[in-house]
């Protein structure tokens, strides 16, 4: 997730309140006490959570030497960088060398440019503007810049009963929309997109905050490029919401429900050949995957030959982190 910081060293209580309400990740201030009176948020100050000159550095890019200095400091902590004429090239060079570059910006346009540098963009932005409207617009932009996954098309080979088992409903603090859900699979190397419960049906009301994600043993993609077993996800964790275009957004988990239900095993093969993948999901008409065109299809309507969306990953995980190791999962 990209970081959204705001510079309030020139103190503005209304701007600080707006920043907190808009979901800012941190406020840069002269003193932490004023910020703490307003709410719980990370503070960058001499007496704050992150200390300038120790955890966070600032560099104005004026020439190659200052650019090299910023890259070196990026090995120690976050580096807030600004440029005299707001050129993109120095940011590109720095992003190529460090994943802790924070670009100082003054408006939404500059933030959008920084977040798109070298496709992956900077780690975050520091907004130097106390206008509440600008704070809200930049915050919204940053929160939607969660990155993009390359999705793959899979052909369904079989859908069979998997008996009874424990399945997990992940209830998030985010209202999802049609075409959004979570990436879930039996292995850490391949995932299918399980649709959120956003659609109307004759049996139960929509639950747009929920993904009925699958059996307890399943892997799910979560925040920070990691995976988690569905059984280990709990309130306060951050999971990854993925849409049919591969765009991602982090969501906070509010509750997890584990209940015994009838299950189905969905097996599919990647387009163009390759090892088959699978997912164990609840056997119910409200459980849906995503078709190639992004529309939802119920698991009870799935047939061999149907084309569905998923994600291929490099196999091998240790406590959720990708590792270089030979692991066979099947």
TrEMBL record:
Where's the 3-dehydroquinate synthase C-terminal domain?
A: 154-330
- Alphabetized UniProt keyword annotations: Amino-acid biosynthesis, Aromatic amino acid biosynthesis, NAD, Oxidoreductase
Which Enzyme Commission number(s) are listed?
A: 1.4.1.24
Tell me, which GO biological process terms does this entry list? amino acid biosynthetic process; aromatic amino acid family biosynthetic process
Cross-referenced InterPro entries, in alphabetical order? DHQS, DHQS/DOIS_N, DHQS_C
This protein's source sits in the domain of life called Archaea
Q: Which reaction does it catalyse?
A: 2-amino-2,3,7-trideoxy-D-lyxo-hept-6-ulosonate + NAD(+) + H2O = 3-dehydroquinate + NH4(+) + NADH + H(+)
- Write out the GO MF terms: 3-dehydroquinate synthase activity; dehydroquinate synthase activity; NAD binding
Q: Where is the 3-dehydroquinate synthase N-terminal domain?
A: 1-141
Per the similarity annotation, which family is this? Belongs to the archaeal-type DHQ synthase family.
Q: What does this protein do?
A: Catalyzes the oxidative deamination and cyclization of 2-amino-3,7-dideoxy-D-threo-hept-6-ulosonic acid (ADH) to yield 3-dehydroquinate (DHQ), which is fed into the canonical shikimic pathway of aromatic amino acid biosynthesis.
Protein name from the UniProt record: 3-dehydroquinate synthase
In its UniProt entry, the species of origin is given as Methanolacinia petrolearia (strain DSM 11571 / OCM 486 / SEBR 4847) (Methanoplanus petrolearius)
- State which gene encodes it: aroB'
């Amino acid at each position: 997730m990209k970081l959204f910081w705001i510079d309030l060293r020139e103190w503005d209580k209304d701007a600080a309140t707006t920043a907190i309400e808009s979901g800012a990740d941190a406020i840069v201030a002269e003193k932490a006490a004023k910020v703490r009176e307003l709410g719980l948020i990370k503070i960058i100050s001499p007496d704050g959570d992150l200390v300038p000159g120790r955890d966070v550095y600032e560099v104005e890019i004026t020439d190659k030497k200052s650019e090299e200095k910023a890259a070196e400091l990026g090995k120690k902590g976050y580096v807030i960088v600004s440029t005299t004429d707001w050129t993109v090239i120095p940011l590109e060079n720095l992003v190529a060398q460090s994943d802790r570059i924070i670009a100082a910006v003054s408006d939404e346009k500059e933030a959008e440019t920084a977040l798109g540098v070298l496709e992956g963009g900077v780690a975050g932005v520091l907004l130097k503007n106390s206008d509440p409207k600008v704070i809200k617009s930049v915050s919204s932009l940053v929160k939607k810049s969660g990155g993009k996954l390359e999705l793959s098309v899979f052909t369904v080979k079989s859908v069979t009963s998997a008996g009874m088992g424990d399945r997990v409903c992940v209830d998030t603090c985010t209202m999802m929309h049609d075409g959004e859900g979570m990436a879930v699979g039996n292995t850490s190397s391949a995932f299918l997109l399980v649709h959120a419960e956003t659609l109307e049906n004759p049996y139960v009301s929509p639950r747009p905050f929920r993904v009925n994600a699958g059996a307890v043993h399943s892997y799910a993609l979560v925040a920070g490029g990691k995976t988690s077993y569905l059984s280990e996800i709990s309130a306060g964790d951050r999971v990854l919401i993925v849409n049919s275009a591969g765009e991602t957004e982090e969501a906070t988990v509010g509750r997890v429900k584990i209940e015994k239900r009838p299950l189905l095993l969905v097996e599919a093969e990647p387009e163009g050949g390759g090892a088959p993948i699978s997912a164990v999901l609840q056997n119910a008409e409200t459980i849906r995957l995503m078709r190639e065109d992004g529309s939802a299809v119920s698991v009870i309507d799935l047939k061999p030959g149907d084309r569905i969306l998923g994600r291929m990953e490099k196999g091998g995980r240790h406590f959720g982190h990708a590792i270089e190791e030979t692991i066979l999962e099947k």
